Structures
1.
Amino acid sequence: MPDLDALPLMNRLPPLANAPPRVRILTACAAVSLLGLFTVHFAMTFVYNQPLNPVKLRVGDTVASWMHPYFAQNWNLFAPKPINENRGMLVRARVRGADRRVRVTSFYDMTTPANRDAQERRWWPSRRSRLVSGTLQMLTYEDPVALTIKETRTRLLRERGRRARTTSGPDGQVEQGLAGIPPTSAERDYRRRAMILAERLASLEATRQFGDGVEAVQVRVVRHAFPRFSRRDLSDDTGKVTFEDLPWMVRSR
Amino acid sequence: MSAARRRAAVALWKGLDDASGERRSVLGAALTRISLGLVCLSFYVLHYGDRWRLYGPDSVWSWENFQGALEDAGGFSLYEIAASDAWFTFVFHAGMLVTLLFILGWRTRLVVPLQWVFTWSLFQRNPVLLDGGDNLLVIVLAYMMAVDCGARLSLDAGRRRGAPAGDGAGSRAVTLLHNAGLLAIITQVCVLYLASALYKTQGELWQNGTALYYIMRVQDFTLPGVSEMIYRNPLFVTAGTYGTVLFQLAFPFLLLNRWTRLLALAGAIAMHAGIALLMGLMTFSWVMVTVELPLLGDRRLEAIGAWLRPRAQALRSRMPLPAGVRSA
């Protein structure tokens, strides 16, 4: 059997018209089935990647089951709403000292060293520094569809002259969303995994900073929203800083 | 049969003959293979010292998270087979070896699927490290299985040169598959740009031309000393914001014509160079440009190679290198 890949390089095969009928029929069959597969797959890919619309609402589940998991993709980074804030992750720890007494440390900033690391190795960076920013991204994740609904509802409420309520649980529970909409299942999954990740990462760093006596860690998420573009040069508008403290978490190792 | 129908049949027949008779962009595909392979290699080599913390059984992406996310998505990962140190060490190093063979172009028909399996597995082990470039990379690797990417710049090239060429139905089917695979890659890129543009057009900050200001101000995406000059300038911010959306919307349509295709490629290279320099998203930009490279066509790539070769040689002969390196 000839090597199927041993095509004369940069060369054409002899014209198909001169090939025996069997070859011609088989080639045509292969082309038709390939074309069919290609069309279906990219129709799916196209619909899958659209913003939410009536067609997607109708066939979205079918499309997703075709695409997942191996062709899953997401191209709405920075859109429709680009990230407009800096995020920081701080950790403090409950440490048992040599005298068996427990003390609580002050907060240690994990983001600045990670950023410095990324800047120093800018041109071929290790992705190690993405652990911190990735954790923050997961902790602050908002389902894009839920976000659209929330924003629309908030706008409607504002238009009716009512202020949108922002409810924030006591010891930093999941934010209830602008108009009191509960988190979606995707947001809950993200949050749960993000907490485990945050504990791991914070425990590693806390142990490095505060020694092996670390028993529990608490993560503080700081968000610094930038002033709007038109107010970028006003010295009295440096943006808005908010923070959220996650519950204390027992060190896993 | 009417004349019109006969003409249509002839055109169809010619299209079939073209698509099944000549493998397009084999050089471009080989470059894509090598270039994507280097990105994959960076996951192993740059993180080698951190491999336990990033990918090991006791990684910061805990076993529970790893399994849970995998189960939700419904995929597999070789790393999931056992939570032991020995298995992790084996899979990680096997993946590294496969990546090397992939770059060198050894038995690509076998190694490309393996490369997809190992890369997919590694990406599932710690998704926190990934970005859109990695997302595209693993999808393109799947399409590369159809593509004959080992015809040039490979260990296979020598072996294949002497072999008898097949011109039966099998060889034609493989050629069809190759061309379809290349088309799939570029179609995927078009869908990417279109989707990205459509989402942007829905956003208020993209509409009013200030989105770039917010993005460039984020510390993760800042080039100290330069970004600030750009994001404070109304002209740069507005032009950059609208330019991005316009380019992404136009890209698929620019491909329809042979000459505007070059414009699309130039635009992509400019945009991704900007993203790489200013925002520090090196591998993302690298993957995007790499994947679009076959659009240049092999004839142009050959011309660029022919232009580069004597210059590279002149440069090499001027450099004081050990004799062994120079002869290589």
2.
Amino acid sequence: MKTKIISTGLALGLAMSGSVALAEGTLNIYNWGNYTSPELITKFEEAFDIKVTIDGYDSNETMLAKVKQGNTGYDIVVPGDYMISIMIEQGLLEKIDPNTMENFGNVDPKWVDVYWDPGRSYSVPWQWGTTSFVVDSEVYKGDINTLALIFDAPPELKGRINMLNDMNDVINAGLRYLGYDRCNSNREELKALTELLIRAKADWRTMDYSTIEKLTSGDVDLSQNWNGASMRARAQRPSLVYAYPKEGFTGWMDNVAVLKGAPNLENAKLFVNFIMDPENAALISNFASYANGITGSAPFMKPELGSAPEIVMPADAPAPDFVPPCNQEVVDFYNKIWTKLKQ
Amino acid sequence: MVAPADISPTSDSQKLARARQIDARRKRNTRLYLLLPGLVIIGLFGLMPLSITLVYSFLKPGSYGGVEWVFSLDAYVQFFVERDIFDDTLSPNWAYISIFSRSIGLSFGATLGALILGFPTAYYIASKPAHQRNFWLFLITLPFWTNLLIRTYAMLIIIRDQGVINLALMNAGIIDKPISILYTDTAVFIGLIYSYLPFMVLPLYASLEKLDLRLIEAAYDLYASRFKVLTKIILPLAKPGIVAGCILVFIPGLGAYITPELLGGGKKLMIGNLIAIQFGSSRNWPFGSAAALILMAVVMLALLLYVRHGAKGARHG
Amino acid sequence: MAKRFDLRRQTGFSEIAWFCLFALYAPILMLVVFSFNDNRSVVKWTEFSLRWYYEAFDNDGIRAATAISLKLAFVSAFFGTIFATMAALATTRTKPYKGMYLAYAVINQPLMIPEIVTAIASLSLFALIKQLTGVTGIGYLMLAHTVFTIPFAYMPIRARLEDMTLTLEQAAADLYAPPTKVFWKVTFPLLIPGIVAGAMLAFVVSLDDVIITLMVAGPGETTLPIFILGAIRRGITPEINAVSTILLVASIVFVAIFFLVQKKRTK
């Protein structure tokens, strides 16, 4: 009996393990969850007769932890800007030289010489956006383009604020409000920051990633938020306005890159070239509501994306601030502040 | 269970002793075979990861996550002693102490709550006619086939300020303005009970189902009250189930973090979050490993004491 | 029958049981209601619509994730329960023996340590095994799930076995029944309620697991919880509610048939 069970188990295990064979004509993509346009994938599959699997991760760090251990079986990942520079430094990405590819000419020149991949030898733009905050203009009628709404909340917003549950997003916003540098290790400045955050936290209701539900259900009237998510929230609560605070706000870009030792390297390169086509890049944007960094894609995009105040920045807004990865000393400081804040 | 026939003439007592010996050996072997699959699979895929964790906890954090292969006790020191980032003074690490004690308190409360609700439920199910019991068990577990995140979102609809409960109470004229439950520790407490109730009900049911009715009958014959029967007969008999249920609620409750985050609003860390962020944006795998091991040591110790005590209690009873 | 019911009755217990049932189903009811919401919100009602059911049927990602979740839960609950039953038989109803507490601790080890730590460490271990053997696939995920379902199945079974009197088994043994026969004819039937409870718990914990799955899963192995986790930032749509409702209805129908058949047979 027992041996039967065990042998059945082994047989079953072996049978299952053969199911993801590394056959030709496949491509395994590891992207942020619910971020890949199904239309784009179908189009790619039909054009090249390649079977694509897509899996999702919830954070850059989850993806990094898996990739670092090796043998994930994935070909393509879509890390954020700072994560690209970490992964290049750690030798986790394949140098595929997208800058020599056929469609590279479509990449908007301002996204070519970026700090995380100067000249684009490893990665190409997927989508980019900003992280600022969104506020209900019927609840708060004053000037919204200042971080004071978060750190010195006016009476009507006290207890009605959601912050992202993200160490870097919260700390960077605080540093901007105080006018200090990012990746800061100045103890005096960090002390002031800690005091500011602890004081401001009393006015925050929640710290959570599910910003859309919080806003549309009326739990909060202001939320730190990504621009695309703000647009989705506005569709259900039209009085929401996305702020471009004068103290500055975060810019980010997710980039398509190929893992070192990718089992389907050639297919992966095909995909990288494929998404630099304006028509295909537009499919990406239409699905996830962020800008894509490919020139000439606008005519193929949904009209509402072209006019959305979350995506089209006003001329007087400060430039988005792309924050490189901080060194371990700074991260250790940030950890202590974060634990103190949330103890 | 009978000893092989012995040809040589020996005394009965010798025969008996021999038979007992063989019997004992056979029992030992059976025991070993029964334990083997579980131990092997957990040994390989539970204890090996645990050993890896142990090793990690004595190393230095690698840049951008991972570990650097240099021996260090920093992770443990960091847990107990805090070096002030502003003036370098040393002090006990109150942040971690407060996070640990809040988690333990909430989980303990939820265990108690689950027991108070779960025991009568399990008892009621066990007292149903035999063919209805499995159906009831199924009714209790069915909601849990729906993903935790989705269930938690559904709970938000019920307990939020403009939620179903508040609207109902206000319509009934019981309250004038909504009671704020959501994003408080109360919400976390309710959420934990909700998430882990079946973990309490099912083991309790397993041990109550075999309740010997003759004992209860005898007690009533001796004019015991219903309450006496409950406390003096039913509860002691259900002890193994109570222990099992409490373990299955308390320990996962300690490590829980999705429920506390969504219902509690995420403004405070639980042990689960504290450990999880070390493997994420905090990039301190050794500290995450050390904190997890300290938590495990505490839980393991409590559990072993409990089992030893429980086993003794059962033998005497 | 009436007399037996009287004996077992405790004041207020049935009310509490019904309250629990009600409380457990209230959120589920909300979830079902919102699966028919026309709006893309899972928290704010607009009007009735079936659009999310169409979208869910159309969504290959959700369909595949649901199938993988169910497959994984069935396999791991099946093996987890068998191993747990065997271990429970070996660790109860005997005098404490050398190594019993150790065995007990090992069986419960997966419970003791926060999931994220097991997840990271399993990730390292599996990566190494993959490197050495070249074997990939869903087998790793099944192994990892089986490991953590064992203690959940073990607890109710152990609770059932503890204090279970040896009288019947001894009587059978005295009648020269071979040990395997004693087990299948006497012990096993008595154990069934514990096994059912244990298997249900194992199934549920496997179905709901997020963190270990997230770390261990390979290409094409996204489960429903992982899919939902990934969707949080972009806003969860009632599609997920629709899928949950379908699963719920399917399992109710399935189990109702099972109980009806069983009832007929016992009659």
3.
Amino acid sequence: MSTPTHEMWTARLRSSWQRNLPIEKLLPDDQPAYVASWIYVFGVATIAALGVIIASGIVLAFQGPAWYHTSDIGNFTNSIHFWSVQMFFAFMVIHLWGKFWMAAWRGNRVRTWITGAVAFVVSIATAFTGYLVQTNFDSQWISFEAKDGFNSVGVGAWFTVTNLGQMLLLHVAFLPLILGVLTLVHVLMVRRRGVVPPIDAVPANLEVRK
Amino acid sequence: MTGWLASFLNHPATYLKWGWFQISISNLIVILIMLALFAAAILIKFPKGRE
């Protein structure tokens, strides 16, 4: 005897998704009037910078250090990767300042706030492992300075910053995967609850801008 | 790379110190640009969209 459709986990997941995140919320073409402010631009600017980081990172991974240390186009791609990270962090921190001062965790958005905060911490770890896998004297210096710090707090045997293989895999595989998933969940939560209104918003501000 | 930018980037960082607090000029410039961007994002009017 087959299980009734409404008890299947796939059916429960489908109906939950349709109830919480219908396609109109997932891909909206209108936003409330208050979103027409430059301070709301920095979240998507962070995602754009992340896109450039991933694209340039894929090129660096395929071509390798012998290419990006010696050729002009390799140096250029390496710089694109570095400077897009600088812009990613600058935009992310301005986004954080904006969201902090508008108390963006209001309206049942606490999980959106938390995923953003965790994504920030994971981004720092990803950038740090990036500095360690440059395969130059700079990365050697940073890793030998950092190992003493990690050893002093007792995690050096587990997180070995002088182990290039471990740092490279963390930088190009594990941490980007975690960051990608966190970013996706963060954006889906923003779409589900909508962009947080200003603290002093009146009902007229909340109307969708056509 | 030539000029003042090259001489700024190709040397060890210059640090400003006030007691226990110290910061490189490079990091200070980045933080000041971020603060300016934040202020500009709040103060500058967003262009009108579709009406």
4.
Amino acid sequence: MIEHNEIQIMTTEYNTFIRITEKVRDIVSNSKIKNGVVYVITAHTTTGIAVNEGLECLESDIHDLLSNLVPEDGNYAHARFLHSYGAMGNNPTGHLKSHLTGNHCVFPIADGTIRLGKAQEIYLCEFDGPQDRTVYITLMGE
Amino acid sequence: MKTPVIDIHAHPWLFEEVCTTEEQEAFVIDMTGLYKSGSFPAEEHFIQMNYNGVDKCVLLPLDLTTTHGVSLGTNEQVRALQDAFPDRFIGFASVDPFRDDACDVLEHAFGTLKLSGLKLHPGKQRFYPSDEALEPIWQICEKYNKPVMFHAGMSVEPYTLSKYSHPMEFEELAYNHPNLRICLAHMAWPWVKEACMLMLKYGNVYADTACLYFDSAREFYDQVLTKDIPITWVDRGLRHQIMFGTNDPRLEAIRMKKALEALPLRPSTKELIMGGNALVFLGLEEYTRD
């Protein structure tokens, strides 16, 4: 059986990490699927899905790491007018941070519960906000 | 009291309050060329404004009755948006100058709807600002002391011709109507020096910073405002005539504001650009140039 869900999040910062673990946990708990896996997948190319320990200090360190790897004033080919959009492609940092972070994570479901390590937190990583964001939560199992 | 930060150039095109049908949304996307965009509630715009430190924004609709049969937001919709969010929105009117009832529409927009100015797009509405047929429009604006925001310079939108919006096409209007405040949007890019010439010569001519067509916002402003013209022109002779604008939703409001703030300008000049000049342009404050 496959079950598709989605959550909407209106972000409020340009770059931010939003903890979505409880939303995913609730969807798994309310699902008919009791054993299988759950995928958490972003619908966007300037966001990421990450798993790490839910600590403010780590969030700050990861933010600094990505900002150093992908500085705002870098020389980006994407900084040009995009005719297919009718708009500027002035968000290369968002795309590159998204590329580094990845678009999804996956966890086991056992006995109707998501199996997370004690330190594991699921994040929606916003790299081009504020924007209205969609995260797909897809469950596969029985 | 702190001067409010005012985005003098934003569009309500994609607000759900304007895109009330799928047909209207498709029309907006076709007309604006924002091919991968979709509508969203006006309140979402405030989240970006809040993050960006913008207090108010001017909403600019566009009446395309005779050229395309509809409008990119009506005057009534803009009035309703301003009524719903009076602390955040300043509504402008638009009128297709070639519609038979253009003067009636504008009288209604200023007299009844109490909108704060007029938006026109010569390149899309297909008129020259010096066309004598538009004289009644200018007289109504002067009668109500309302400014005119013109698209000026190149337009990246479909169905536009840039020849109508070269800065030199605005000189006769500025000359003949010294009491009519007009803004050449987008710094009239790429004709920035010509726009500066008009601002130097005519105190009723303004420009806004809603331009970003190459590179990053920081690189583009560096080119346009420190290389194409020296930044000292902005900081000295034109400091009372340039206004902060974003052209939202097409351009990059957050990165543009950061790039503007990073320019080597006096703090007092930045305050004028970010809101002080808009208050004068809108007729809410007075400034007499010496």
